[in-house]
Amino acid sequence: MLEFALRNDVYRRPLMTALDRLGLREGWRCVDVGAGGGDVSGALAEVVGRDGRVYAVDSDPLARDLVATAAAASSQVVAITQAAEELLLPEPVDLAFCRFVLMHVLDPAVVLGRMGGAVRPGGWVVAQEPITSAGRVGGRPLSMPDARHPDVGAELPALAVAAGLEVVDAWAESQAGAGPGPVADYLASLTGVHPGDAAVVLPPLVTVVARRPVN
Ligand SMILES: C[S@@+](CC[C@H](N)C(=O)[O-])C[C@H]1O[C@@H](n2cnc3c(N)ncnc32)[C@H](O)[C@@H]1O
Q1: How far is the CA of 100 from the centre of ligand 1 (A)?
Q2: Above 80 in pLDDT, residue 2?
C-alpha cells in the first residue's frame, strides 16, 4: 500500500492534468484498467459523483480487496477481477483509463485495443505510462528491468494510433527533487535504495488522450 500511496502523492499532478484536459464530468462512466490499490479509481469517483460509475479492473484478485478498502466510501466504484486482455464490461463507458499498466502486460497494443472497444463511439481512452530510462538519479539513467516494457511511454501515441484511436493530445511530465521528500521516498520504494541527497528526476509519464472514432 505504501508504494501506491506514494505514487498518488508524486504522480497526482499528471493525473489531475490529464483529467482536466479531458473534461471529466459528473455522471461519466469510467473504467480504471489495472486499478491496483485504487488511487485512480478513487480520484475518478470523486469527480463522476453519485450518478457516475467507475469499474476498477485488475487481474490480481488482491487488488479487489484493496480497491474495496480504498473506495469504501464511493458506492459508485465496482471492483472486477479480470485480465485487461479480456476486458469486458456490463456497459460501454465514457472513459477507459490506465496508468503504470501497459509497461507490465504482455502486449500493450492488445490492451489498448480492448480499452478502445470498451468505450462508446466518441468516448475517451487515456493512458499514462513511464519512460523509466529517462528518469535520473545523480545524473545517471534509471532502469526498471522487472517491467516488460519499461519505456512503453515513448511508444504511447503510436500505439494509440495503431489501435484505431484518434490522438487528441499527448505530453510527458514528472517530478524532480533533491534530498528528503516524497520524490526521494518514492524512488526508494521503487528501487529499494534511498538516493540520499542526490538529484532525482522521476521517470516521466507520457499521457495520451485519445478518442474512439464516432464511425
Ligand atoms: C504498477 S500497478 C499500477 C496500479 C494503478 N494503475 C496505479 O497507477 O496506481 C500495475 C497494476 O496492473 C495490474 N495488472 C498487470 N497486468 C495486468 C493485466 N494483464 N490485466 C489487468 N491488470 C493487470 C497489476 O495487478 C497491478 O495492480
Answers
A1: 7
A2: no
